[in-house]
Amino acid sequence: MRDPEKMLSQQGGWSPEFLSPANIESVQTEYEVLHLMRQCANHFGFGHFLVARFPADDRQRFSERLLVSNWPADLVRKYDALNLFHVSRLALDTGMTKLPVQGDSALLAPADWESAQAGEAIALAESYGLSVSTALLMHSTACDPYLMVFSGTRGLLARPELKELHFAALQLFECLEKTFVGLAANREKLSSREVECLRWAAAGKSSDEIAIILGISVYTVSSYFKSATRKLQAVNRMQAIAIALRLRLI
User: Fold this and answer.
1) Phi, psi dihedral angles at 194 (to 5 degrees)
2) What ranges in 11-158 are assigned the alpha helix state H?
3) How far apart are CA 198 and CA 96, in angstroms?
């Protein structure tokens, strides 16, 4: 059987060491994908990266959509508070093409320049070194859309580099999707009540509101969240919701 890496080299293709077949085949966890993405970002001169579920609406917060990211927690919190991800140029522009989208810090701002929050988003991006971003729309084998974004202070990528990054992103996303299968296989089955609580929380309802909707006590709602978080091997409610969404449980 021919070596894919050798074939790429012979054909004038591109396959850096960190994306060797051996490295890709050995990936089993999100942490290992995170490590590969960090190497990829460094290779292209980017300081930040993320993979998130594509924001089709405002029902889930930016932080709940994040799968893999090296954004500082404070940056995530501040961008989350602006509630702009679903109306940002980052989402709208990539949603209209299969090609990579490049731009300056305004990519994180709303497409509507008259929005009062546009300036806030741009200033936030600049203050954390996200002055240039390259975004790519990815699709899982189940056709669910995701965004992969690399950001930093370097200039825009030239066409050859952009092609290389696009190819690397496809390999990285395939590695990430492999971890989805592993996650699903290792999770305990959620009860119907646990699923209901997570679904309502994902829709933005508080524990008090969920208790009223389901006709149970707030204490019971909290118990369902705790058990669901444990079964999904999450660290908190927010991560449990993100994992449940990724596994298509809610």
Assistant:
1) -65, -40
2) 21-26, 30-44, 62-65, 73-82, 89-94, 118-127
3) 30
Rounded-to-integer distance, Cα 83 and Cα 6, Å = 46
Q: Which two structure tokens, joined as six digits, stand for 229? A: 């978080």
Give the pLDDT confidence of 19-48 residue by residue, as tens digits: 887 777 777 777 788 889 999 999 999 999
Bridge-partner residues for 104, per DSSP?
Answer: 132
Return the biggest CA–CA distance within the chain. Answer: 65
At 186-207, the pLDDT tens digits run 556 888 899 999 999 988 899 9
Q: Is 51 helix (H, G, I), strand (E, B) or coil?
A: strand
**Res 5: pLDDT:** 44
- Closest-CA residue to 135 (of 58, 54, 70): 54
**Residue 152 tokens, joined:** 């930093």
pLDDT at residue number 116: 78
What tokens does 212 get?
């009223």
DSSP assignment letter at 41: H
φ/ψ of 53, rounded to 5, equals -65, 140
Flag the least confident range among 22-36, 75-89, 120-134, 208-222: 22-36
pLDDT, tens digit, 9 for 90 and up, residues 90-119: 999 999 999 999 999 999 999 876 677 899
Q: Which letter, b or e, does each residue of 30-64 get, where b requires 16 or more Cβ atoms within 10 Å of its Cβ? A: bebbbebbebbbebbebebbbbbbbbeeeebbbbb
